[in-house]
Amino acid sequence: PPCRTVVEIHSPSMPPRRGTLLTAARLRDAFGTSAFSSASALALGFTSRQLEQAARSGAIVRIRRGLYVVRDDAVERHRGLIRSAIDRLRERGTEAIVIGRSAAVLWGIGDVTPHDVHVMPAATLAVPSTSTHHAGRRCGIHLRKIDIPPDHVARLPDGLHVTTPLRTGVDLAYDLRKAPGSALAALCLAARRDIEVALRCSDARRLARELDDLELTQHRIVELESIPAAAHLRGSRPLLSLVDRVSAAPENPFEALSWAAFALSSLPRPLCQRWVRGASGRWYRVDFLWPESGLIGEADGAVTYSSATDVLAEKRRQADLEAAGYRFVRWLWEDVVPHPHAVLARVGRALAERAVRAPRDPRRESTGRRREVVDIGR
Description:
The chain is of the alpha+beta class. Helices cover 43% and strands 16% of the residues. The longest helix has 20 residues.
């Protein structure tokens, strides 16, 4: 079949080793399904190396810097359903490819739907158009007869054939094209995941430095523009109109949906995941930044602060940045999904107010520095 060509890549979907599984089991016993900070895990006797290995293997999910959650068992059940279906098709001489929302689940770019994100989709697989298998849905499997270009297919370390992150993002965005915010968020997460795969890097801090290379993101945008035609997607014009708004900076679905809301509005586009300096001289990374107005936007998920210690640390962080002249606007998941109008109005009013001090444009900072920074002049 035309999907035979594959690419070997590192992926967090790779089955974790036994030691890592034990680490995840102990973390699940300690924290359940709640988010936990690295400080909380270290206090219980876990090591930084154990957390890093668990995050790399996908046994735990890094929500943001220093905050994790144990991987949902539903993902593993979905993976088992995919594996079972693929094995049955292989016994009949057919090689199937994981596509659509199932591929998005494996890549970790699927939680941007405007409906219940906790509902696992049917295992969606593609077989060649010349296959004798009948397309349709049955027994939790959605089988489609599609010829996928070889360069749109990757092979995970465990042998599963899956559409590449960019092709997966385009497929997901095409299905969500009537919800432009969700579609754009899917493309942003796909671009970031593709860069992670290319750099063989899942460390958020290192990746943030690499993303300063605009050519990495621009290359993904050019490739995203070419995929709809290669995939023969009809009515993809609305999808193509979103591509120039893609940013690989958002780290998670919440940030991606927030970025999409700003990018699709008439407001100035913010910078995402930027380092700023507080009055104490300490550096902090913020979710969104409007440097000309000295405004910081924070997407506060329900699991951002897992303890009173985290809340206190965040208050000190905000006080330090406010002492340096920055202002804050915060919002929750339910403020953005499905209608972000109230958040956009709050940000618009904050941008209309005059900043206490005039910050420098970080895009004019020296490119020779280790990280791009923003500082408010005193």
